[in-house]
Sequence to fold (171 residues):
Amino acid sequence: MGRTHSYRTTVRWTGNTGSGTSGYRDYGRSHDVLGDGKPTLRASADPAFLGDPERWNPEEFLLVSLSQCHMLTYLSVCARGGITVTAYEDVATGVMEEAAGHSGRFIEVVLNPVVTVADAAMVERARAAHQDAHETCFIANSVTSPYTTGRSSGPTEELSERSEAASVPAR
Fold:
C-alpha cells in the first residue's frame, strides 16, 4: 500500500433566507468553502439550479480540479523527463447531463492545454507527456466520467514557433 494523504475542508451554507429549506425556491444556494489558512471561496449552485452566477459552483470546481491536477502532473512529468515547459494554459470544457430523479453526471470533460516548451526539439516528447500525466493524475484516477486531453474536433497538431519556443497543443 502506498502513502496516504488526508485533506480537510469545510462547506458552510450561507443561504438561509429565514425559513430554511421550507420550499425549493425558499432558500439560497450560497455557501462558503473554507480551508485552514486559505482564503474563503464564495460558492453557489449552477444558475440552472437557482444558484448565483457570480459564484463558483461544484461543476466548475470539478472541471478546475481535473484541469489543475493534469497541469501539475504534466509539469512534474516534464521536469522529470528533461522537457522544459515555459508556459501552460488550459481552457477546459465539460458537459453535464441531467437524469431522471433529480440526478445527473458529467458525460464529457475535455482539457485543451496549450504548452510552450523551451526548444522545438522537445515538442514530440512534450505531446507524449500528456498521456503519462493523464494516466497518473490523482483526480482523473478518482472520477468515472469520460475525460480526454485535447480538442474533440478540429486541428490539434499546429505548432507555432516563438523565438526558440514551440507551442504544443495536446492531442
